[in-house]
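// run 5 | inverse folding | seed 20
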């Protein structure tokens, strides 16, 4: 049975990844291009400041793949592969949840697991460490940022699983509705405390040393030696649009996985027709 779940999970994950890619290609890709254009312009302005100050000018390196290849084939393959991996992980989570959720129908359970995956693997970590387009992020903090993000993903999974367990434990005493509210409140308190404790990306040591204390790594206006702005900060509208479409693309992925897996799970786990029943008489 588990093998059937995983095969179907990978299939619906591929479909979800394809739809998420099409969505991201239409809506998020233009924001990425704007970010790349901003980064290129900022680099040119920084080079001019360095040259005027008699400092060594850092030259941009040629990319091994063209921008068109990256924005189409590269992103497409990456998102579809990610969808397949998430579909397999989703199927494993679904198999583990079967038999542990009372009388929840297979179709309903499929949607609940997809919603949990969206929350635990993306939306909750996003609330602390939102997705950023190119041009945002210090190259010396990549390892720290990756580690903090993965830590936030792991904590989200653990807290949501613990919340589901707590809700089941409280159900007999407080009823389904109140037990669910109490479990959600407990998860919110724990996750809120974790987000307060974990540092923001702008507080990482390399960023503080280079830019001072700031909440994020979003580039501020570039100034010359006299303090005059020679290049603006990163456009807020572009940042908002990129993050909004990033969340929407993940919603497309997880929504597709849940909606496509639901009828398959119902077919696998639902009551089978009685083949030994006597044929109907005319």
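// decoded
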């Amino acid at each position: 049975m588990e093998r059937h779940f995983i095969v179907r999970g990978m299939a619906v994950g591929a479909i979800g990844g394809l739809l998420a890619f099409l969505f991201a290609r239409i809506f998020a890709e233009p924001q990425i291009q704007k970010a790349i254009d901003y980064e290129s312009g900022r680099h040119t302005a920084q080079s001019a400041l360095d040259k005027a100050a008699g400092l060594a000018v850092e030259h941009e390196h040629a990319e091994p793949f063209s921008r068109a290849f990256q924005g189409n084939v590269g992103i497409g393959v990456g998102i579809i592969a990610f969808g397949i991996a998430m579909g397999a992980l989703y199927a494993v989570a679904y198999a583990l949840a079967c038999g542990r959720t009372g009388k929840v129908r297979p179709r309903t359970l499929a949607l609940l697991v997809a919603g949990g995956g969206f929350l635990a693997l993306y939306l909750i970590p996003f609330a602390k460490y939102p997705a950023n387009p190119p041009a945002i992020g210090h190259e010396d903090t990549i390892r720290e940022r990756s580690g903090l993000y993965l830590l936030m993903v792991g904590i989200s999974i653990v807290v949501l699983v613990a919340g589901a367990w707590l809700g089941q434990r409280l159900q007999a005493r407080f009823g389904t509705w109140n037990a669910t509210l109490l479990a959600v409140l407990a998860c919110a308190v724990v996750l809120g405390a974790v987000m307060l404790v974990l540092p923001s990306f702008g507080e990482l040591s390399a960023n503080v040393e280079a830019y001072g204390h700031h909440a994020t790594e979003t580039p501020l206006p570039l100034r010359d030696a006299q303090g005059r702005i020679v290049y603006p900060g990163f456009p807020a509208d572009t940042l908002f649009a990129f993050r909004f479409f990033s969340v929407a693309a993940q919603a497309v992925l997880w929504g597709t996985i849940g909606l496509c897996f639901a009828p398959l799970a119902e077919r696998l786990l639902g009551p089978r027709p009685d083949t030994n029943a006597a044929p109907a008489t005319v």
